[in-house]
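Bumping my old thread because nobody answered last time. Still need a sequence for this structure:
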């Protein structure tokens, strides 16, 4: 599940500037040597792509903030920006035609005060609060169906989590919970609901991690999981136990360990001057494709600290278990580390600025005609477009 993962580090910047092919076999741990020379055009690595215009009637305009969207796909598309003032869930058909809106935002026992995560739980829509609890609703009527609570977890802030079997969950924690003497902490825990026991998994994170993406977990098709956290040089894998999956050599310019514990130096030296490359910590899986975000492989001399789209951020797509990979420019909501996936497809929301940038830069190459056709179907040029795409293995 992808929960409320907009970059904490963008907020900080604002403050500063104002294996083998057999999946039953063990994948051999290796290092990927990532360089700017490997950046590819998107149309070379895309296997399939759709642009779905959100067709919103003029007589019923939706108040859509530019918050990073939460998306679910089933018989219909469920879309919410998670706005604190209007955390509505808008329902569209598969072609993007608007159907109806659900909202039960409030402080009552059958209401949610805000929307920090949107997912399925036992066939119901689950609205998560990032503290281990969710309000559950019928996907057709939005009738309240109860509350799901991970009793005994007692971790104050949970950026992401995945249910791995009947009783066990993988949990992401954050800086401030069980820090050690060096101010490092465990980003991942294994929690057993049956006996209310939790186990800290062995990687440790730094102060800088909490200002990037605290951690994300993605399910793979063999019922195992890929794990990632900000400033880590390693992507991890969990199947009964945790182990390193792949190491990242980012153009021989990885972030030094000494900077990972100093947030001030990190933002002033690394972001502004693009001095080092680093793993942002975001991770979304689509089937057996692992997508992570990398900063700084290739510098952008025109970087604007107030414009995230100008940052040198790249999507690294790694196929599991072959570890073959593609590197391409990040775009749309993927720049923020968010995204939804299903059946091997990634889903990303393109707001007007991202649409305009994509048309101007022709980032989708030979598929740009499809994008322009979707633009032509919009009732209002301010309405978003949903991108659905699959990456070649």
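Sorry it took so long. Here it is:
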């Amino acid at each position: 599940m992808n929960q409320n993962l907009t970059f904490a580090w963008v907020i900080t910047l604002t403050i500063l500037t104002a294996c083998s092919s057999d999946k039953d076999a063990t994948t051999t741990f290796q290092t990927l040597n990532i360089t700017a020379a490997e950046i590819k055009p998107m149309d070379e690595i895309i296997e399939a792509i759709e642009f779905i215009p959100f067709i919103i009637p003029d007589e019923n305009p939706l108040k859509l903030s530019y918050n990073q969207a939460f998306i679910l796909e089933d018989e219909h598309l469920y879309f919410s920006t998670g706005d604190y003032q209007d955390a509505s869930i808008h329902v569209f058909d598969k072609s993007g035609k608007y159907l109806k809106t659900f909202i039960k935002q409030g402080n009552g026992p059958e209401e949610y005060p805000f929307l920090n995560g949107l997912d399925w739980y036992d066939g119901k829509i689950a609205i998560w609060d990032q503290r281990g609890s969710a309000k559950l609703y019928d996907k057709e009527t939005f009738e309240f169906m109860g509350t799901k609570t991970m009793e005994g977890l007692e971790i104050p802030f949970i950026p992401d989590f995945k249910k791995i079997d009947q009783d066990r969950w993988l949990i992401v924690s954050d800086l401030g919970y069980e820090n050690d003497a060096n101010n490092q902490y465990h980003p991942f825990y294994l929690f057993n609901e049956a006996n209310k026991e939790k186990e800290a998994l062995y990687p440790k994170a730094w102060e800088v991690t909490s200002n990037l993406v605290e951690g994300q977990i993605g399910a793979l098709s063999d019922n195992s999981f890929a794990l990632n956290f900000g400033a880590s040089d390693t992507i991890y894998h969990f199947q009964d136990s945790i182990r390193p999956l792949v190491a990242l050599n980012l153009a021989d310019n990885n972030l030094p360990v000494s900077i990972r514990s100093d947030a001030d130096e990190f933002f002033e030296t690394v972001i502004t001057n693009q001095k080092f490359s680093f793993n942002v910590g975001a991770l979304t899986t689509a089937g057996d494709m692992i997508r992570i975000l990398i900063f700084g492989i290739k510098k952008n001399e025109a970087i604007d600290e107030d414009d995230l789209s100008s940052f040198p951020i790249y999507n690294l797509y790694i196929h599991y278990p072959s570890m073959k990979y593609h590197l391409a420019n990040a775009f749309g909501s993927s720049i923020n580390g968010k995204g939804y996936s299903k059946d091997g497809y990634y889903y990303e929301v393109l707001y007007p600025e991202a649409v305009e940038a994509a048309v101007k830069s022709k980032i989708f190459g030979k598929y740009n005609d499809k994008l322009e056709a979707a633009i032509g179907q919009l009732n209002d040029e301010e309405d978003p477009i949903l991108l659905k795409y699959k990456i070649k293995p």
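Residues 263-273 form the longest helix (11 residues). Let me know if any region looks off to you.
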